[in-house]
Amino acid sequence: MTIRQTTLDFPTPDNHARRRFIIGACNAMAADWIDRWPEWPGMIRALIIHGPRCSGKTHLASIWSESTSATTLTHLKDGIDHVNPANHYVLDGIAPNANWPDDMLFLVLTRFTGAEGSLLLLADQSPASMPWKLADVTSRLAVMNTAQITTPDDAMLHDLLQKLADDKGLALDEDIIAYMVKRMERGYETAVQTIQALDEMSITEKKKVNLAMARKILNNGQATLF
């Protein structure tokens, strides 16, 4: 599929509601861990969810934050004075880079050891397998509760396309969804970009989405990955 970058819409709060989260074989474990809070075992009450972009990690974090009044942090480069181990935090986009200095992350993990607060870590890949400079960071991440979101199967891809279309108010007939599921690349980003492209084409042509549009997008590479 030819690649053409498009802009993603920001999700509305309702799109991240618990009832809107689609559960399948690829993400059932992650969803189950979210529902099990606060019964997260370990010296640090924490959960790592890792998986591809657009796979629902942010949606699960939103569900958890609604229950815990958690604060989302996208970096620690300004220090951790504001991080209270009695509270709950989402650490979004964990990776060994300037946003997440090893020493700062180590201090956070130390601060939450045996504490009342909780941490939900989100990453594209398993943080324990990342090249952290401090071995203590790697070892602490390695013993945390972890759930991986994997590639969607046909059933999940079908439901995901339907949800993404519904979020945009885009009417998709069943035959169009079935056509796309059978032919498109299996991937969350691909699904997002496909629906984005269909929506743009529908607006441009001032027509309801039809099978010809879906065929054109998949054959000519109008729907794309980043």
Describe the fold and architecture.
By secondary structure, this protein is α/β, with parallel strands linked by helices. The chain folds into two domains: 27-148, P-loop containing nucleotide triphosphate hydrolases (Rossmann fold); 152-220, Helicase, Ruva Protein, domain 3 (Orthogonal Bundle). Helix content is 41%, strand content 10%. The protein contains eight helices and five strands; from the N terminus they run H-E-H-E-E-H-E-H-E-H-H-H-H. Strands 2-3-4-1-5 form a five-stranded parallel β-sheet, with helices on one face. Helix 3 (102-111) links the parallel strand 3 (88-92) and strand 4. The longest helix has 18 residues, at 188-205. The protein is elongated.
Topology:
Layout: H1 28-36, E1 46-50, H2 57-68, E2 71-73, E3 88-92, H3 102-111, E4 118-123, H4 135-142, E5 145-148, H5 154-168, H6 174-183, H7 188-205, H8 211-220
Parallel strand pairs: 1-4, 1-5, 2-3, 3-4
Helix pairs in contact: 1-2, 5-6, 5-7, 6-8, 7-8
Question: What keywords describe this structure?
Answer:
Helicase, Ruva Protein, domain 3, 5 strands, 226 residues, disordered C terminus, elongated, 10% strand, disordered N terminus, 5-stranded parallel beta sheet, Rossmann fold, alpha/beta
